[in-house]
Design brief:
homodimer, alpha+beta, Ubiquitin-like (UB roll), 7-stranded mixed β-sheet, 15 strands
Chain lengths: 394, 394
Amino acid sequence: MILKDFSLSAVAAGIKYQDRLDLGLIYSRTPAVAAGVFTTNQVKAAPVHLSIDRLKQGRCQALLVNSGNANACTGKEGMEAALHTSRLVAEALRIPEEMVLVASTGVIGLPLNVAAFENNMDALVANLSDEHFNQVAEAILTTDTVPKTVARTVVIGGKEVNFMGMAKGSGMIMPNMATMLAYILTDAQISFPELKNALKSAVETTFNRITVDGDTSTNDMVLVMANGTAENSWIEDSQHPDYELFEDCLEEVCKELALKIVEDGEGATKRITIRVCGAKEDQDAEQMARTVANSNLVKAAFFGEDANWGRILGAMGRSGIRFNSEKVDIAFGDVVIVKNGIGKGQEAEKNASKILKNRHFTVCIDLQDGTGCEEVYTCDLSIDYVKINADYRS
Amino acid sequence: MILKDFSLSAVAAGIKYQDRLDLGLIYSRTPAVAAGVFTTNQVKAAPVHLSIDRLKQGRCQALLVNSGNANACTGKEGMEAALHTSRLVAEALRIPEEMVLVASTGVIGLPLNVAAFENNMDALVANLSDEHFNQVAEAILTTDTVPKTVARTVVIGGKEVNFMGMAKGSGMIMPNMATMLAYILTDAQISFPELKNALKSAVETTFNRITVDGDTSTNDMVLVMANGTAENSWIEDSQHPDYELFEDCLEEVCKELALKIVEDGEGATKRITIRVCGAKEDQDAEQMARTVANSNLVKAAFFGEDANWGRILGAMGRSGIRFNSEKVDIAFGDVVIVKNGIGKGQEAEKNASKILKNRHFTVCIDLQDGTGCEEVYTCDLSIDYVKINADYRS
């Protein structure tokens, strides 16, 4: 898929490792309407501060992103480095500095190697092409094992509107009102407030519902750029007949990227949906699902393909949500393993163990106490997660 | 050490595995004043419910404890099994049923094998001896690798008062107003309200400050039995001149047991103290220390002996406690690695890495924003933690 007026580029700038793509550029010749959602971690990286500030105007034209160094906890020098690299882009593309966003991901606390940016800016810009989407999707990866991209087309008001999205995830993943790096490009015509609202609500049910390890990053960022080249009728208020369609499609794109992040979580061998139903309120269901989804014991049992439902009940019991344990049903896929708080026995466990051998499955917890229902997406806790994170910087 | 009128016994009853001690009995010929603290997990095992109820009278004479099966999530049958086993003890020892407490630890959700208790009760009682303290300390273990015991003597009002404690821990350890199995025997003379208060305050700064994996068990229980045979002057109100001395000694015993639990956490290779100082309030310091102590990324870096302070700042930033990241100092042992939010560079990291090679060390976080200060004790996240918990039931 090609989006009109969007071009992309990535080069191997040697920011941390040699000979791997680590510096990417996304450029829209037509200034794009843009909205972002950022980490809620109090410790925010310099590029996050800068991009939050610049996105207040609701527009941008270019995004410079590097992997290998998060430019976080780097003080005034870090902010100067972020400003300096954005200036390099503005000069090379001859656009206003305020139209450039910057993003970084990688190790926290190391000074950014600004020379690597200076030395590679010409090559980066010269390489811009509407066919280089996958280059950037690769350049943003850290411990990810595969690039994560998605493409969608939807007809809005008789016009084909296209979406292309990319994301990186892996570790330090429990976005809390924000998420990891994800960039979504679209040619839709839509105004800033509508784009912002659509993104916020899409993130809430997608990126904000995934967890790899319960840790929230200093650099999380989801950005959507809409350059309007699809020439659909401007979606300029939320009552517009096409707003909902746009929002649904954006949510689908976010969900697919979010699930890809979980599947490629550090060391992950499985993606698991934790669904809590029958809670008093939706937010109770979410809180309980999140507690189960973050339990190391539950996640290690998934890795071992052990239908150890006692650990699920244990995690539920410390979730802070009140429930009657004698009314709890738990199913792995379509196998009910706990009925009214009591195990269904060895036959059920044997069948549940088969479900656990799958790459994806759902654990459904029914509290039988209301209509609140929510899902959270998680992965298993494997030996490789520990290996990766014991060795990450070496 | 021998405590007058206390006798103990353990046998291999084959509750889960053959040929290992798994059924223990603690008996005080003199009825003891007793106080307990129990799990705050909403899902409580049957023996926990029964023991909470019986301890309301502030006295007990015997405790029956098994490993291999938690008797949790076992419904009405589980409670009947707990009652039945306590009756077996009462009959064998010819004491009132209400003076018998029961405790279980092990797999959640399996029916308790009551026959194993029936078949072994005579042998268990016949084996009672004041020299068998270590037998019971061994019988309560699950994935623990070593028994955890402590002994202390303190002179109170001219009389030698003795304490003996045992504990088991390992996984599902983040006691929240309660803890794992720990039993403390003393010959002190003390009244129930004072014993209860002393235990509560000792647990708060010891067992409640440890974490292995952030999971709270369904079966946590700390019990102290004081049979008064030391004949110290009765500590019968909290203004008694000896109360504070008793409380301090009890706290020391609890702390030593708690640290032993962390050191023997599932797969643990190190014990780490996370100290947060300079917070606005003590409880802010505690909450932040707990968040850092539970971060998988921080704990995996400890396992890898990597002084990855960026992950510590990342965890601090999602702790919910407000702070100014530009005022944060972080030290590993006596090596300052972050000053005013910025890394001190490679030399400091090299020195910090040496500290990380130790079996025990302290990470000190100074927020420079007040006098609030608290410590939490944690262990590293190792490959063996995942191995143990992927395979636990097989």
